[in-house]
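Quick one: co-fold with magnesium ion.
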Amino acid sequence: MQISFDNSYAALPDAFYTRLDPTPVKAPRMLAFNDELAELLGIEAGDPAQLAAVFGGNDVPAQAAPLAQLYAGHQFGSFNPQLGDGRAILLGEVTGRDGIRRDIQLKGSGPTPYSRMGDGRAWLGPVLREYVVSEAMHALGVPTTRALAAVATGESIYRETGALPGAVLTRVARSHLRVGTFQVFAHRGEVENLRTLTGYAIARHYPDATGPLDLLRAVCAAQAELIAQWMSLGFIHGVMNTDNCAISGETIDYGPCAFMDAYHAARVFSSIDRQGRYAYGNQPGIAVWNMAQLATSLLQQMDDKDAAVEEATEIVHAMPALIEAAWLRRFAAKIGLPAAQDGDQGLIEDLLALMQKDGADFTNTFRALPTDAARDQFTDRDAFDAWATRWRDRLDRAPDAAAMNAVNPAVIPRNHRIEQMIEAAVAGDMAPFERLMAALATPYAETDPDLARPPTEDEIVPATFCGT
Ligand code: AMP
Ligand code: MG
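Sure, here it is.
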């Protein structure tokens, strides 16, 4: 297969990675292939057996330069000085038809020197979850890594619940640079490597940035927009560790993530997030915390430390206001206001408070707002009606349903649908996967109303698992 790799990361110093090939798998079989993304990347969709051999890791393309990347990270607030790609291998980079350079990475492709206690593998469930949710996020308009392929390995892997079918995901990203990539060199005091990394990140993502602090400013701005988008869609990432925070501003690492059904600001899905560190409503604060870690790392290379610390502090302290402004802009649009003015924040927060009190469905409430059906989402209808009166006064005209429908999705990848899809896929039935992918390709259109339905009492899936 012809893939026009052009690998810039592999040209960085050896300290940045370990070169190694993916570990071949027993019986690679194509489960899903993203033709549209392949086309963007200039990859010809050949025959399925050949695709499965390449994206299962058995057949490494000629121009690839496979490697596992080194990084560190704060996991749930505690620093781990060395993480790295423990189950992923970067095949290389391609420049797409849109002129953008992207990484092509296999995830679940076997052990690496950074695997620690792990087996380097992934099972089908998390692979298909990431495939569906990342592609849905893309269709929703959120910056995100994407899914090019999912390959069944024909091997069993072992997790707490027993033997599970193995799979490999091919992930495509603007890069896999994380806050943790900076942290590893800063922690080790490897200033030259830190400088090289900074220059590389600027050239690749923010070519207008004039230096480390300007890079920090750009990443803060990108992360602020990203978090506001997550909030506006009811998305909960679940593991906002600094190693899962991308310098590009893309959503990365779909582990125990989920979209909320019933709205609650303290909602958590991740089974391992017992303190609620990464709860829905904590995401803005955590993003700022992550940027403070990036700032600390970047500062290690500055000559005039005092002045740099002062400037970096200013940049990080400015971030909450950036998130708030982006949040207000997006939520104002969700309630049909093209531009926010004084008092709108309170109006939006009052609606959210009512939704929280009544457990209203996040997605369906906003989608129904321009119609009379919105009040059906509430048990306290008088309270909602009182809010709606204030809202209509503020609008001063009929709500612009078309504009609102363009920002309030009709369908999101609901957690119970994801679980049903995984269960079917394990049993060999990919039809629910295909159905989800079809509806989520146009999430602002009402193509499959049954997928818009919140879970019934029996269908609720309250927690998600990393599956590592
Ligand atoms: P994640 O929670 O996916 O962000 O992973 C955190 C760290 O654990 C990363 O360094 C991963 O590469 C590593 N890791 C996760 N799962 C595995 C696995 N099955 N085998 C080896 N390393 C893993
Ligand atoms: Mg990760």
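If it helps, The chain has a mean pLDDT of 96.
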